[in-house]
Amino acid sequence: MKKIVLSSLFVAAVLGVHAQSSVTLHVNDVADGTAITAEIGCTFQDEKPIAEAVLKNGQAVFNLPVTEPRMIDFRVKGNDGRLLHLMTTKGENVSAYVTAKRIVSQGVEYINGNEEKQQVFDSPTHAEYMIKIGAFKSYLNLYNKAYHDAFKSVNDQINKAYEAKDTATVKALQQSAEYQQMIKFDSEFFKLLNEEYPKRFAANRETFWSPLMQLDTYTYFTPENRSGYDELSDAAKNSFYGKCLKEQVYPKGFTGQAYSEFDVLDQNGKKTPSRKLIKGKKYMLIDFWASWCRPCRAEIPNLKQVYADYATKGLQIISVSLDRSDAAWKKALKEEQLPWPNGIDKSGIANAYKVQTIPAMFLVDVATGKIVGENLRGESLRNKLAELLK
């Protein structure tokens, strides 16, 4: 009897080991003691880490709880950059080598992995990903880099002329041989994209690979992308990534539903329930944004004007940042000087609202607690508020 029990425990332990993927990540140019996180990728959701490890002697070891193929994104904790984009599944013992590459954009540092120096061993799943689309994407990145390097001079000159409103110089540059060559290069690049990607998606429509590849390729989805989902096999549609893709191409609206209450975590670390911030108000506008999101920043002047016009009539705005970096968020707050409550999302608020792209806005009727408008921006937001707050 004792032998049977021990055997059962042994089998359970073995099954537990094989129900995960072991990844040893070797990282150059990141200091020992740095925390590295792993999260599920290609879901278009604000995923929380499924594992975390600290670099020691340049290595971080992860036991990832995956039972079927998943894309895993490795990041320096608290940084929006991505060190490694790895496809793996249960039972694999992966070794990956990456070299950090730091990029500063709008005063914020992003720690990415240098794709040209990346190596992955002992992951048949990742090798298959590279064959299907990963290598092609890497080629496109190199192609795009060559494009920017080759035409940097003329691009810089045109941008400078645009900023100076020097239309004569802009026109002259656009007629130059270098600019015409750039246009030709650009046209060939997008022709390649439009021809190659659909072929690869169609060739893999019987399995999860096609929806994964679509999620891995596009930064946002429109109704035009629905055919990519509609043509999938039932097995592909019912896969994890098939379900993720469906949420993007056939999103469910929130208008008419009760809003999900949340806590606003401000820059001082204080949490305030949203219900307290809207007490005595008629409508609440929940604004999802991030410091790195240019359309979000471009919308701020309009929001400030809306707030000035309607705050005394019963409008409250609550902005929720999706920044991973507290420093980047606080820097943006200092620059923008937003006069309404602001918080950063550390608890999955965006997930509750299925936020796929930003800026994303939800207008709530405080009296009923129901959402009466979503993704209202610019003139459409002003018109809706004029209708509600006469």
Automatic annotation (TrEMBL):
Question: Its domain of life?
Answer: Bacteria
> Subcellular location, in the record's words?
Cell envelope
Q: Which residues form a coiled coil?
A: none
Query: What InterPro entries does this protein map onto?
Result: AhpC/TSA, Thioredoxin-like_sf, Thioredoxin_domain, Thioredoxin_ResA/DsbE_sf
What's a Gene Ontology MF term here? oxidoreductase activity
SUPFAM superfamilies registered for this protein in UniProt:
Thioredoxin-like (SSF52833)
Report if keyword Disulfide bond is assigned: yes
Per UniProt, residues of the Thioredoxin domain are 253-390
Keywords, ordered alphabetically:
Cytochrome c-type biogenesis, Disulfide bond, Redox-active center, Signal
Alphabetized Pfam families for the sequence: AhpC-TSA
> Principal localization?
other
Query: Residue span of the signal peptide, if any?
Result: 1-19
| One Gene Ontology cellular component | cell envelope
Picking any one GO biological process from the record gives: cytochrome complex assembly
- Name the UniProt record assigns to this protein: Thiol:disulfide interchange protein
Organism annotation: Segatella bryantii
